């Protein structure tokens, strides 16, 4: 963990309780976890992982929840959060007091180019931060850089891409624009497309900045849920589109979560 993250946590604890991961998610800071899964809106039950894993609900709130997922010798801490970069920062910070070997972010992503189909599994090659929340991870909030480009550590990501290939899946590297608003992004869609990114979602720029501060190997696994370039809608999919999306979300994604958690 980098010095700045330690300082962030020290100030966080100064004004809040200790053992926040337990209070928020029911996760034990004395346990060692193979991975932390960070999942806006996705629970292990939603991905039907309880049919072949032991899933224990630790704590459920109005917007967040904590789970323990166990499979053979694997022990995975799983947090379900609300969407947005600020929620990502806050809830990963809460879990910074836990011990885990790697971090796996999972979520849905919209495509901005026609070559991406519903159900495709993607991971960011870089993310453009379209919001402001990530600036709070800097030394000063006055150091805001508009549309900052965030690049992940690709060594671990390339390893996960290889794991997918060995498993018969394709994990596509793709550029991402991170929007702070879903409703208003469509009004600015033509401007957003000027950044020439492949995908659009909300959290991965802040995710990889947090991963850098935590010094934890991290990968984002994103399932394409809609495509504004082809007209494949988030709501009102055709049967074929729904089938492709369900396969990516309910088969490929859970398999890759387990295989990534088990990666050495």
UniProtKB/TrEMBL annotation:
Biological process GO annotation list?
nucleoside metabolic process
**InterPro entries, A to Z:** Nucleoside_phosphorylase_d (IPR000845), Nucleoside_phosphorylase_sf (IPR035994)
- The segment(s) forming the Nucleoside phosphorylase domain are 91-232
Q: Which Gene3D superfamilies match?
A: Nucleoside phosphorylase domain (3.40.50.1580)
Signal sequence coordinates:
none
GO molecular function terms here?
catalytic activity
Name of the protein in its database record: Nucleoside phosphorylase domain-containing protein
């Amino acid at each position: 963990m980098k010095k700045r993250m330690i300082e962030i946590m020290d100030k966080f604890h100064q004004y809040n309780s200790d053992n926040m991961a337990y209070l928020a998610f029911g996760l034990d800071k004395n346990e060692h976890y193979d991975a932390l899964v960070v999942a806006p809106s996705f629970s292990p039950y939603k991905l039907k992982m309880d049919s072949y894993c032991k899933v224990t609900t630790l704590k459920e709130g109005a917007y967040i929840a904590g789970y323990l997922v166990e499979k053979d010798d694997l022990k995975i801490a799983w947090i379900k959060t609300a969407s947005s970069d600020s929620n990502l920062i806050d809830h990963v910070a809460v879990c910074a007091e836990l011990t885990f070997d790697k971090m796996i972010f999972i979520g849905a992503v919209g495509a901005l180019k026609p070559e991406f189909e519903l159900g495709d599994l993607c991971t960011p090659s870089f993310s453009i931060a379209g919001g402001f929340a990530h600036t709070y991870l800097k030394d000063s909030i006055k150091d805001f850089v508009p549309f900052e480009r965030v690049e992940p550590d690709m060594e671990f990501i390339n390893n996960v891409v290889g794991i997918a290939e060995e498993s018969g899946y394709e994990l596509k590297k793709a550029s991402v624009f991170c929007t702070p608003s879903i409703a208003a992004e469509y009004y600015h869609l033509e401007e957003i497309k000027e950044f020439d990114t492949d995908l659009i979602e909300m959290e991965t720029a802040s995710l990889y900045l947090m991963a850098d501060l935590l010094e934890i190997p991290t990968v984002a696994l994103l399932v394409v849920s809609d495509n504004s370039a082809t007209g494949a809608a988030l709501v009102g999919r055709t049967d074929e589109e729904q089938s492709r999306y369900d396969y990516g979300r309910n088969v490929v994604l859970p398999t890759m979560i387990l295989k990534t958690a088990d990666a050495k």
